[in-house]
Amino acid sequence: MRVFFACVLAVLLAGCSKVTKQNYDQLEVGMSYDAVVSHIGEPSQCDDTMGLTHCVWGGDGKHIKVSFVADKATVLSAQGLK
Question: Domain 18-79, what fold?
Fold first, then answer.
């Protein structure tokens, strides 16, 4: 029974994802990290390398990637959004 409820919860949470084309289209170069997070939520993962921060929202088939320099979005990309 617990497994059933865990599966239902996972499906409901996936349906509430903010990783959408509409939300991606509203992102802009120059936005702060906090502004991006307030718009599409906490990233799935972030990597810091030599002053660059690369963050990913979503998974392998459907995701938004944003690169930050000095807390400002510099590169935006997406895959699999509808």
Answer: Beta-lactamase Inhibitory Protein; Chain:B, domain 1 (3.30.1450)
